[in-house]
Write a structure and sequence with these properties.
The protein folds into 2 domains: 9-188 and 245-268, Rossmann fold (3-Layer(aba) Sandwich), CATH 3.40.50; 272-438, Dehydroquinate synthase-like, alpha domain (Up-down Bundle). 49% of the residues lie in helices and 11% in strands. It has helices at 9-23, 51-57, 70-75, 79-85, 103-110, 125-138, 182-186, 190-201, 203-217, 223-237, 248-268, 277-291, 299-318, 332-339, 341-351, 362-367, 369-379, 383-392, 406-415, and strands at 40-44, 63-69, 89-95, 118-123, 141-146, 158-163, 166-171, 177-181. The strands form 2 sheets. The protein has a 6-stranded parallel sheet. A two-stranded antiparallel sheet has the order 6-7. The protein starts with 8 loop residues before the first helix and ends in a 24-residue tail after the last helix.
């Protein structure tokens, strides 16, 4: 991986740490080859003005489509001039404010791809996800110029997208180049920075769910990839009291942690290392909000709140020395009613003719319960400790902070797990002999 020479000592430390960490995955005890398409990651101050020369050095195609919205392009002063100076031929698509990544936006971007060689996404979550999937479908080179440390998917090769009102994660293109100007990151709106912190806080429950799924089903699990996520998570959690400061060094460290998590997802080929029940709960809220024609709020705000709820639930479950188990007793009519309309149709497609609990023996769940308890207590922080970190970082902590009312909260906690064909502990709740008021 190519890293920048002419940057500050702190930026060199951050970039060097990334390079050393990623190069250590050339061989892994899990016996899988961990592939990384990224050939350049640049995190440092003043990079907007030299992005053109960096992309040139990386061999990025000279005919490119620049995709941004009014906010992200305004934040990236000097970027377009840098591209022109370096000889790039630029086609642009500037959205007013791209707040959700929808399949129709992907279709529109794909329609702009003839006669261009690569796509440069200027922004964060939604813009990057739309562009990475369009680049994948059109076999175009892909690069990111990040404008805020708001999410963990910069280095990912998957894209969560909304189609027919339902949010699913699709295989997508990993960027060949990631550039982050820490001056721009540090000046990003506080809400974006705290959202990035919330998205990282969700990794605790994601890692717990991954280990539990491996224990019960033999699903692929790599301890080193999990450790990579945990290292990035700890790096960001240690910045809790500095997140809201306009400080380029903090922004650099936070961005490095976010990038590590995206790399972990690419190493496994899916979102498992970074996404568990808390993300599915967030996606449920988002889809229901969109169904009602409401703004669903930033992804990281929702996942931060969801991580607190799931952490509290899991630790409460783990307080039980043993549990009674039985075959899945899901009331599918009630599930369909909770989703409603097209959402219900899309959800049922994932769960018919088979659902993920079909192959889980209730007896095995009972036998493995002590190990599940151990995983939870080993992986998850105390709920109040996690809440304190989120508060320090200015992140949302309560459902009301993200405009989730009591009805949507209850619906989400009970029915979110059916949105994914994946084993998370919440999806196993209908196999546990626990009354609703005991959960």
């Amino acid at each position: 991986m190519d890293l920048l020479e002419n940057i500050s000592a702190e930026d060199k430390r951050v970039n060097g740490s990334l390079e050393e960490t990623l190069s250590s995955f050339n061989e892994c005890s899990c016996l899988r080859e961990h592939k990384l398409r990224i050939n350049m990651i640049k995190i440092g101050e003043g990079l907007a003005g030299i992005t053109g020369s960096l992309l040139k050095k990386a061999g990025f195609p000279e005919r490119l489509l620049l995709v941004a919205d009014e906010n992200t392009i305004a934040a990236s002063r000097g970027l377009v001039e840098s591209l022109k100076t370096a000889g790039f031929i630029i086609k642009t698509q500037i959205f007013d404010n791209l707040i959700s990544a929808k399949m129709e936006d992907v279709t529109m971007i794909r329609g702009l791809c003839p006669n261009i060689g690569g796509i440069l996404a200027v922004g964060t979550g939604s813009i990057c996800d739309v562009c990475r999937y369009a680049a994948f479908k059109e076999s175009k080179a892909f690069a990111i110029f990040a404008t805020g440390p708001s999410m963990d998917g910069f280095a990912s090769n998957s894209a969560p997208l909304i189609e027919n009102g339902f949010k699913l994660t699709y295989q997508a293109r990993q960027p060949e180049v990631i550039i982050a100007d820490t001056g721009i990151l540090a000046a990003a709106p506080a809400e974006l920075k705290s959202a990035g912190f919330g998205d990282m806080a969700a990794k605790y429950t994601a890692l717990a769910d991954w280990r539990i799924a491996h224990l019960l089903t033999g699903e692929y699990y790599c301890p080193r990839v999990a450790e990579l996520v945990l290292n990035g998570l700890n790096r960001v959690m240690n910045l809790a009291d500095r997140v809201l400061k306009n400080d380029p060094e903090t922004a650099a460290a936070m961005m490095a942690g976010l990038v590590m998590t995206g790399v972990a997802m690419s190493f496994t080929g899916n979102s498992r290392p970074a996404s568990g029940a808390e993300h599915v709960l967030s996606h449920f809220w988002e889809c229901k909000k969109l169904q009602a024609g409401e703004w669903p709020d930033f992804h990281g705000k929702k996942t931060g709140v969801a991580s607190l709820l799931i952490t509290e639930l899991y630790r409460k479950l783990a307080g039980r020395p043993s549990v009674g188990t039985h075959a899945d007793e899901t009331d599918w009519e009630k599930v369909r009613e909770a989703y409603g309309g097209r959402l219900a149709e899309e959800m049922m497609k994932l769960n018919r003719p088979a659902t993920v609990t079909d192959d889980i023996d209730p007896k095995l769940l009972s036998v493995k319960w002590p190990e599940i308890r151990r995983i939870i207590f080993d992986t998850l922080p105390e709920t109040n400790s996690l809440r304190s970190l989120l508060i320090q970082a200015g992140a949302a902590t309560e459902p009301r902070d993200i405009h989730v009312d009591d009805k949507l909260l209850a619906q989400g906690l009970k029915y979110h797990a059916y949105m994914r064909n994946r084993v998370n502990l919440t999806r196993l709740m209908p196999m546990l002999s626990i009354k609703d008021d005991d959960k």
